[in-house]
Amino acid sequence: MDTAVLQASLPQRLAAAGVQTRIAPLQSLEQADGHWWLLLEDGRPERAATVVLAAGGRSRALWPHLPARLCCSWAAVLELPAFPARLGRPALWLPQRFSRLALEGRAAGLVEPAWVVDPGLVPHGDGALLGQLSLVRPERMAAAALPPPEAEALLREGLAAHPWGGQWAEQPGRLRQAPVAFTTAGLPLVGPVPQTQGLWVFSGFSAGFSQVPVLAPLLAAGLAAAPGPAQRARWRLQQLGVWPAGG
C-alpha cells in the first residue's frame, strides 16, 4: 500500500461512497449532554452520538481513559526523493523479521528509553521511505519526539549495522517522525470503549498493512449494519481477539 497514493485518492473514493467528510485538525474530544463534541481547529464544533477514535499515536491525548495496554512509540523514516533506480520497478523491500515487534512486547517493563532500527524500503508517491527507527520510552517519561538530528543519526547508525540496510545508510533523504500506537499484547483495540457510551476505538496496529484491511470492514458492519450482519461482524471480531476493546 502506497500511503501517498491512498491519501490522494481517498477524498474522491469517500465521496463516491456517499461519505461526508470534514477535514480539520482535532483539538479535543468531550462528552456532554449525551453527545460527543469534537472541537476542531477551524473553530466550529462537531456534535455526534457515536465517535470512532482512530487517531493512532494521538488517541490517548484525545481520550486519556483508553485501556492501559495502548502505548505509543515514535517512528522515524527517511523520505527519499525517488525510488532507487538500481532496484528496478518500485516494490516493497521489507526485512524478514521486524525488531520493532519485540521492543513493543517488552515496552511495559522498560525503565529507560529503548530503540531499534528495521531496514526496509517502500514506495511513497514518486519517492520512497527508507528504514524505520522505533523509539519507546517508559510510561513515566515524556512521550516526545527526538530532536531531528539525533533521530536521523540513530536511524542511519541502525541502517549501517544491517547487511541490507548498510548500503543505504548514507542515502540523502528528509527525516520524517510520527507517533505510532501499539499494544503490549500485540492485538489492536477495535470496538466500543468499556464504560464510555458512544465511543469506539480503532487503534494500536502492529501490522497495519495486514490487520486494517481485515478489521475495518468488520468494525463498520458491527457499528452500522442491520442487526443480523452487525452481530455476525462483532462475533468475528471476538474470534479474532480484538473485541471488546477493553482489557
List keywords for this structure.
single chain; 247 residues; four-stranded antiparallel sheet; three-stranded antiparallel sheet; 6 helices
Question: Could you describe the 3D structure shown?
Answer:
This protein has 247 residues and is of the alpha+beta class. It has three domains: 1-48, no CATH class; 50-67 and 186-247, no CATH class; 70-183, no CATH class. Helices cover 28% and strands 28% of the residues. It is globular, with a radius of gyration of 19 Å. 27% of the residues are buried.
Instruction: Look at the structure and give the mean pLDDT.
Output: 91
Number of helices: 6
Give the low-pLDDT segments: none
For the largest sheet, list the strands in their spatial order: 6-7-5-8
Largest sheet: 4 strands, antiparallel
